Amino acid sequence: MLSQLSGLYGQNLFESVIPFWLRHSIDKEHGGFFTCLDREGQVYDTRKYVWLNGRQVWTLSKLYNSFERRPEWLDAARLGAGFLRRHVFDDQGRCYFSLTREGLPSFYQRKPYGAGFVALGFWEFAKASGEEWYREKALELYARLSGWIANPALLGRPALSGGTASSNLADIYILASLALEIGDLEMLRKCLRDIRLHVDPATGLLHETATLDPSLRKSTPDARLICAGSIFEIYWILGRALRLCPDAEVEALLLRALDAACELAWDQEFGGYLYFIDIDGRPMLQLESDMKLWWVHCEAIYALLRAYLQTGESKWLNRLEAVHNWSWSRFPDPRHGEWFGYLHRDGTLSHTLKGNNYKGCFHVPRMLLYSLLDLQAADGR
After folding, report:
1. With 0-12 CB in 10 A as exposed, 13-18 as middle and 19+ as buried, what is 43?
2. What does the alpha-carbon distance between residue 345 and residue 325 come to, in Å, rounded to a whole number?
3. Which CATH architecture group holds 47-158+167-328?
4. Would you place residue 163 in the very low, low, confident or very high pLDDT band (cuts 50, 70, 90)?
5. What's the half-sphere exposure (Cβ side, CA atoms, 13 Å) at 39?
6. Confidence (pTM)
7. Residue-wise over 205-225: b if at least 16 C-beta within 10 A, else e?
C-alpha cells in the first residue's frame, strides 16, 4: 500500500494541487495570494488573508528547499513575501488579519496566529532566497509571539473578570512549529510540558482548551471540546520535537491520544472523522461539528502514516488505509484540481469552493509533501 501512496501523493501534489494554486491564486499586479477561489479557480473575494498568505509563502518555499529548486516556486513565494513585508504590519509591529487586494488594512483579529504564520513563511523564504531581512523579521515575530499569547491585551484583548485561565492547543502548535524551524530546544521542552495540561485522564484525549482551574474542568462547552484534527496535527508536530528532546512519557501520551481520537471521532455510520465532539456527549455550540473537513483528514493521513512508521503496528496502517480511501474518494477534484474542503456528514459536498478565508495552500500540499518525503525515506530513496 505504501508504495502506491507514494506515487499517488506525488502525482496529486505536482500535477493537481500546486498547479491549481500557481494558476489561480497569484496576484501578479499587486503581489500576494488570493485564497477565495471557486471550484474552477475563479476569485470571488479579492481580500488577502494574512495567515493564508504566510502559509502559502511557507508551502512554496518548503517545496523549493526540500524537494526541488524550481524557479517558479521561488518566484511565487517572493511575490507573497514581498506583499506581506510591505503591508502586513501595523505601527506596533502586529499583523493584520486581512488586507485589500492593494494591501490596505481590512480587518484586525485579536489573535497571534496570523503573525505566527507570517513568521513561518518568512523563515522558510529566507532559507530559499538567502534574504536576511526575512530571517531577522521571523525571529523578531517569534520573540514577540510568546508575549502576545501570555498577555492578549497586547493584541487588544484584555483579561476580563469573568474569564477563565486556560491553555490552548493552538498556542502549543504555533510555538512548537516555529521552535522546530528555529531550533529552540527550550521552547520545545516547554511545549512538551504544556501538552500534559490538555490530557483527559480517563480517556487520554487532548482537550482543545485546557481550563487551568481543576474545579472548572469540563464546566463549559469550550472546556469539553475535542477536535480530532488538532490531536492528529499536534501528534506529529510534537513527535518531531521528541526527536530533539526525547521524553518517553510524552511519547506514550501522544500515541494514546491519537488512538483515542481515532476511536472517538470516526463516524461509524458514514465514515470519515467528525469535526468537533463534546467529550461528555453533550450538545455542541458549533453547528458545523458533524461536518467532514479537508484539513482534519489531511492531518489524520499524515499522523497515521507517522504512527505506523514509528511503531510498525498494523492497526495504524489499517486506519491509514481507511481514512485514505474515504478521503480520496471525496475530497480531490479530478476535473479542476486541488481538493474540496467541506463535506456534509454523509460525505456529500457542502461547498464546491477550493479556498476561502480559512482554506488555502497549506494542509493539502503539506500532507502530500511530508508523506511523500517520509515514504521515500522509508523506501530508502
Report:
1. middle
2. 16
3. Alpha/alpha barrel (1.50)
4. confident
5. 12
6. 0.96
7. bbbbbbbeeeeeeeeebebbb
